[in-house]
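ok so heres the complex, two chains, lmk if somethin looks off
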Amino acid sequence: MIGASISRWTMSYFAMALAWLFVALALMVARVGFPAAHLASPDTLVLVHVVCIGWLSVAMCGALLQFVPVLVAKPLYSEKWALPALGLLTAGLVALLAGFLGLGGRLPAWHWLLPVGAVLLTVGFGLIVIDLGLTAWQRPAGPARFVLAGLASLCATVTFGAIFAFAHAGWAGSIGASMLASGVPLHAIAGLGGWLTLTAMGVSYRLLSMFMLARDVDDRKSSMTLAAGALAITIAVVGGIFAIWLSSGLNAVLSVVAALGLATIALYGRDVIEIFRSRKRRQLELNTRMAVLSFVSLAASGLLGVMLILTGTFATHLGAFVFLVIFGWLSGLVLAKLYKIVAFLTWLETYGPVMGRAPTPRVQDLVAEARASKWFVIYHMAVWFGTLMLLADQPSAFRAAAAMMMIGIVGIIREVIRTRQLADVQSPLRLPDGACAPHLLFARS
Amino acid sequence: MTNELVGGIRDALCVVIDPELGYNIVDLGFVYDISVVDGAVRITMTATTPGCPAVHFLKEGVASAVVRVPGVRSVDIVMTFDPPWAPSRIEPEIRASLGFAAVN
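and the predicted structre for the whole thing:
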């Protein structure tokens, strides 16, 4: 297969993901969860899972449904599973959140909602893992290996999460209870470090090369980056479980994981610099310039982590560190690439079928980068300001940062909707004879 | 006659653009070869990235444009990435406007 087809439901995933991001920011503005509440509080669990499952995981799944076939130049194993998976993930997340709200006394204490949510999420992510895994496995080379490592990490993350959910309901016995008492860092590392970060790294290699017309990263170099990252996650999961089983504490395991995590960031930085140096397009589009800001946040996260460990304040400022990783690095990169993917897929869907029969606009004609850039800049500035305010223990100022982030996100969502509506494409190129206007929430294919 | 037909085909292909670069595929150097035998046209072409979803539409767009050229009886399109496309294939003035380095 030379060209991949358009994923019908990627836009639906993106729309759902952006809706959850909006909910997360609204919760932060409304002082629900950290820093207004403790990191381990039920309210913070609500906030963290809205962000990590609702926003980041759903957006990542939507992007992968389109881009894994591009990475391996093979069709998706089953397009039919995409929509049921989205439904299961959404229903599972809602049940999980209701369970957390029950733990915190905001809803009746129906603890069975947590296992129900976990089962729904496990089946939903299971469909995604099988669909993407079988597709990527057809040509497990280059960036596709990062995706496979990410999917394996997703399995570990979901397994930990399901054990915790059953333990909360009192259905997981003493082993489940000890996992819940000590295993939360392993769940977070597998999710944020393995599933989201390794996958984002792999996809970014291909997208950066594709949109800047750069050479693909040397396979030996990216293999080294992946090896360091995958080893970190393996040690976290396997070593962590052993440490919990032996009741020896997680400090030794987490120290090794931190060192390997830093090495992974450094190696990834080297790879990204190589892509930028070899690019044939000298002028950078908005999505690439904004991706650079997310790389800055990743580097800053690494530096911040080292400084906090050296000063013995990592536990105190864990919230600020995780906030920068989630909103600066992961969300920053996903937003930048989502902006580009929406424009690119909208072009393909609308103008691809009439190409050769009528003049068509460029992808760049579907967006207004000068107008959109301010929303991205506001978002990133707000994230960095928010991180500093968390470090300075200034919850009111952090709330202002969350409100600024929300303004940025609303602006970006508006730009994405305008792209889907072809609002910035000038006539007569906007809808040539034979072209159909795209639906906002899915691809007409 | 064949040269005229090839010229007509080239002109017709100017309506097919690379959506990312925004220029037609002839000026971008995507068209490697056009051969015509008794109205049967065979076009060998490339794109910037294998696996990109745009490749399928480029191929379809080329077929749609060429089949309308008077004198064309059939169209066969061969998509190849060997040799890979390089910016040196772009018409010089367009290459400059796209911000590509002269040698890449």
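quick notes: The radius of gyration of chain A is 21 Å. thats all i got rn
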